[in-house]
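Hi all, a correction to my earlier message: I attached the wrong file for PaaI family thioesterase. Here's the right sequence:
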Amino acid sequence: MGVSETVPAGFERHFRQSPATDPWEPLWSRRDDGFTIGLHVREAHCNARGLLHGGVLSALADNAMGIACADRADGAKGLLTAHLSVDYLGSARVGQWIEVRARPRRVGGSIAYAEADVLADGEAVASASAIFKIVRTADG
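and the right structure:
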């Protein structure tokens, strides 16, 4: 990692590996009042204009919000995304530090709600919300 890729205090390598996110590694995460995923934007995260791709951003928001809710869903086998909404407010470029700060809003017996703010070097670039089905049995 170069000087521009310093990881802020409190972040550790993200524990949740997935074939979908493997090309975006390294990802970082921390538990706080919710759950935050962080990364340095690289070319592999960008669209043809050199900006962080909206699909990458939405996938990371979905991941962070799901984990934030799962942490509060006692006895859950998993969560399934039922609804995901992302509002794009700005853009991010290669080298910027992204934080997806997710917070559970309500976690019930079968449904969970979450919100997230996405920051690029501290500036808002997106907000997201999601609804998850809480899976309580092995067969979903």
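Sorry for the mix-up. The longest strand covers residues 123-135.
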